[in-house]
Design goal:
Length: about 160
Amino acid sequence: MPSYSGARKRGRSQRSARVVSTLPPQLPNDRKSFDLLSPRGQWHRLNRARGRAASRAQNQRVRREAIEAYGGKCKCCGETEWQFLTIDHEKGANHPMYAGIPRTGHEFYWALRNEGYPRKGFRLLCWNCNNAIGHYGSCPHKAKVPDDAAVVALLKR
Ligand SMILES: [Zn+2]
Ligand SMILES: [Zn+2]
């Protein structure tokens, strides 16, 4: 079994300088186990985990800020749980008015923030309503046409 000898040579004082982190030092995609890394390698891995967690938290904060900026609830059904909400491209994401703005992901939320949360062409929807509008052209919440089951029920009468 391979072991890192540098840690032994340098002694314990070096190791205690390690950054304290509550995050697991081993991620599934890490090739080398944490214990086999040099003290410097261990320091980098712990800080990387901290850095990633920090940027995740920051991205989440920006997404929540955008959701608040767009009214905090689904325009269609009134859903207010932020995890269920998304900002919809009212004119369809391919419309030229959205040129230059990333379409999805946290880059999208950061871009909206940089643009001062433009009102035109954006609306807040929940994923359900957003999906229904995307797939069927309208949301069942606002359906003008009965769905197939309702038609079948009518014909059976
Ligand atoms: Zn909704
Ligand atoms: Zn709806």
